[in-house]
Amino acid sequence: MRVEPTAKRVRAYIGGRPVADTSSALLVWEIPYYPTYYFPTDDVDMERLTATGRTDHSPSRGDGEIHDIEGRSGAATVYGDSPIDELKGRVRFDWAAMDAWFEEDEEVYVHARDPYTRVDILASQRHVRVEVDGVTVADSRGARVLFETGLPPRYYLPKTDVRFDLLEHTDTVTHCPYKGQAEYWSVGGNKDIVWSYRTPLPESQKIAGLVAFYDEKVDTYLDGVLQERPVSHF
């Protein structure tokens, strides 16, 4: 469990009004992949919270009192006490229960941004070829390589270098706080192994409209050399 202050102003909205607005948020890593915001009660509109009488027990954080917010069940957990001193008197909001989140004046999606995650996107003329079940579905020398902390490099390729006649668009949509909203394709019996960001967030504009493959699930050749499939939580 890691706990750190952040200098960002953070707001959580429900019904067009902020239920929390603070410049004293804490970043709490409840899981290794990304942090969650905890707000001081002084910066929360506590009158909008309704105690349920239920508690949520965490071995590290202790017992939190669960609250509803204007009919949204379990939207907030209030830690009146905690084995972790920094969390005493703090409120944790369920991310999905909020209508919108803002860091300063920019909306944030999916989860709080991790200050230790960096995204670098570099142009590369290296030869990238992707096979699925022995069939070449992409062949390019115009990749953009995206390096994201904690994840394997991702090769984003021009659509003109991808065999879209072999791809089937799906209804799957995911969101990333660093890149934006992605759409997906399947190849044969391999579901959602290809994705693209049509309109990525400003810091990831270099991959707009390009296509990437889960290297964990395909065979990727880099300059003619078959790469070992990476291991990740994907």
Structural class: mainly beta
The fold-level CATH name of the largest domain is: Metal Binding Protein, Guanine Nucleotide Exchange Factor, Chain A
Q: Which CATH class of the largest domain applies here?
A: Mainly Beta
The strand line-up of the biggest sheet is: 1-4-5-9-8-7-6
Query: Would you identify the CATH H-level superfamily of the largest domain?
Result: Domain of unknown function (DUF427)
* Biggest β-sheet description: 7 strands, antiparallel
What amount of the residues lies in strands? over 45%
Uncertain residue segments: none
The CATH architecture of the largest domain is Beta Complex
Any overview of this molecule?
The chain is mainly β and 234 residues long. It folds into 2 domains: 2-108, Domain of unknown function (DUF427) (Metal Binding Protein, Guanine Nucleotide Exchange Factor, Chain A); 119-223, Domain of unknown function (DUF427) (Metal Binding Protein, Guanine Nucleotide Exchange Factor, Chain A). Helices cover 0% and strands 52% of the residues. The protein contains no helices and 22 strands. The chain is elongated.
What's this model, at a glance?
The protein is 0% helix and 52% strand. The protein is an all-beta fold and 234 residues long.
